[in-house]
Every structure is written in C-alpha cells, then in structure tokens.
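It is worth pausing here to work through a concrete case rather than discussing structure prediction in the abstract. The textbook approach is simple: state the sequence, then state the predicted structure, then interpret. We follow exactly that order.
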Amino acid sequence: MSEERPAIRARGDQTWQQRAACARAVEVMRDPDLFFPSPVANDEHILLAEEVCSSCAVRKTCLEAALECRDAAGIRGGLTEAERRAVRQKFDLRCDPARVAAALAGRDVHLTRREKQELIRWAVASNTSTLLLARVLKVSEAHVQKLLRLERRTDVVADGSAGTSSTGQAALEAAAA
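Step two, the predicted structure:
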C-alpha cells in the first residue's frame, strides 16, 4: 500500500516511522545496516533495501522528511544518497499552496524557500500582520518587515503595481476556506 501524497506533517513529526516497512525489515533480517550500505556494498544489498522501500506505506513521507532535513545518509524513501542529491533541486523548487495555507493557519510545517517566498507575496497582498509572519517563519518582526519591503519593491518593479501570483491567490483562497 503506497501513499498518493504525503500528508502535511508538523515539523519534526516522526510518528510515520512506526508504519515504515524498514523498521520491520531490519528486525526480520537482523541487519541494522540494511538501509545504510557501506561505500563498498554490493548492488544486491542496495536492491534489497530499495525493494523493501518500494512496498512501504510511508515511502513518500520518508523521502520528504529526508529532503527536508537534508539527510544524506543511507537509503531513504527508496532513494540512495546520490539519487536524493539529484532530486534535491526539484524539491527545493516545490511550491505547494496547501503547505503555505497550513503554515498561515498555525501548523508548524517545513516550508521550502519557494514556499516562504510565496508566503511573503501572499502576505503583501493580504496585509498579514508581521507578528503572525514572524511566528510562521520563526524570525524577528524586524526581519519580516525587511522581507515585506523587499517584496513590495519587487512586485512594483515587476508589473508597476501591487499584485499577487496565482499560487499566492490559491493560498489566500485555501486559508479563507
């Protein structure tokens, strides 16, 4: 059974690990290094670990958690260290309006750099309080004010007037719902 899309987890939430196939596989095979092959490990060892991951119910959540924390060790979410490095850039470019809306609603979720930028764009369009943004981004209000000023300048230069992107609009609508 495989997840379609990982649920929006709270930052640091590791409860999904209780449902992970790797935990049971390590117990059954009695090999604590199954998902942490040595640099000279044979392909058979890696293929066995990837096979366990392929049937895991929380594979996508595991991969997302590894990418969020920049975990470089072992096989996570069915990908080796090298394979995760290859998808890192795409992950960093992710911008999910539902995650932005969840953060604005008070959920402590990991936001990518693009999602944080979208949050700032949305905040400019909706006059969100700097205190709320500071809490969501875990920065000072002074830093939020600087980010808002920069976004207002960028927005005015881009089209000559204030506006919001389509993703920002989607986040605004999701937060209002």
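Step three, interpretation. DSSP finds nine helices and no strands in the chain. The first helix runs from residue 21 to 29.
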